[in-house]
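Annex B. Sample input.
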Amino acid sequence: MAAEWEHKVLTYELRMRGFDYAEIERDLVDLGREGWEAVGTIAPSFGAGQTIEVAVIVKRTRA
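Annex B, continued. Sample output.
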């Protein structure tokens, strides 16, 4: 039987001083304790190529 997966997409918006990487790290550490694993990122660009949001994709096996 194939594994069943749960997925989440975490989004982070650009702030005046850039992205809050400490917040992203805290979120990933907390989710890692719950069995989530980061598997990808999305950083769409708009207009002149500025990224205003990043997304982190996480997954874990369904219990």
